[in-house]
Amino acid sequence: MNVRLYVWQRGTAALMAPLVLVHLAVIFYATRQGLTAADILGRTRGSITWGLFYGVFVLAAAIHASIGLRNILVEWVPGLRSRAAALISTAFGAVLVALGARAVAAVVLG
Ligand code: HEM
After folding, report:
1. Domain ranges of the chain
2. How much is the average pLDDT of 43-64?
3. How many CB atoms lie within 10 A of CB 20?
4. Residue 86 in contact with residue 70, Cβ under 8 Å?
5. Environment class of residue 31 by beta-carbon count within 10 Å: exposed (0-12), middle (13-18) or buried (19+)?
6. Which of 64, 72, 76, 88 to mutate to test the pocket of ligand 1 (most atoms within 8 A of CB)?
7. How far is the CA of 48 from the CAs of 23, 29, 51, 55, 109, in angstroms?
8. CA of residue 28 relative to chain centroid, distance
9. Is the confidence at residue 39, as pLDDT, over 70?
10. To which H or E segment does residue 78 belong?
11. Which CATH architecture has domain 3-108?
């Protein structure tokens, strides 16, 4: 794998580790407090902090997963050119960004 992709994949993994922990902590907190969906949306709507938090999370996951998918394609699909693997994984990453952005918009913008 080229060094740049390696650095991006490890970098996004390192970034996601604390984000996952905060996300889990928030889930535990919301569950323990018995918050309803409406309570949660009441806190996330209009929040720049949560918008940035989940926006960065979505971007990191999309970059990380698409680089990982590219590696798997190159390793497992015989005869697949690296350019084709790059195209497929970039398209996959773009779908993840679009779906993730939609989800973030739904909880932050309403
Ligand atoms: C906290 C979250 C995550 C961490 C810390 C993490 C960490 C890592 C690391 C260190 C690798 C490199 C493994 C290697 O090359 O030996 C990796 C590979 C990979 N990750 Fe993640 N990851 C996370 C989340 C995700 C998510 C959410 C996805 C998919 C949506 C994903 C998909 C992949 C794929 C497809 C690979 C490539 C596996 C391979 O090369 O064989 N990861 N991850």
Report:
1. 3-108
2. 97
3. 11
4. yes
5. exposed
6. 64
7. 16, 20, 5, 10, 10
8. 20
9. yes
10. none
11. Up-down Bundle (1.20)
Decide whether any atom of ligand 1 lies within 6 Å of the 7 Cβ. no
CA dihedral 101, 99, 74, 5 (to 10 degrees): 10
Candidates 65, 75, 57, 55; CA nearest to 5 is 65
- Cβ–Cβ < 8 Å for 66, 90: yes
Handedness of CA 74, 18, 35, 52 (dihedral sign): negative
d(CA 75, CA 93): 18
User: Which amino acid belongs to residue 38?
Assistant: A
Whether 98 is in the pocket of ligand 1, judged by its Cβ within 6 Å, is no
Reported as a single tens digit per residue, the pLDDT across 10-29 is 999 999 999 999 999 999 99
Mean per-residue pLDDT, 33-47: 96
Report whether pLDDT(110) > 90.
no
pLDDT reported for residue 19: 98
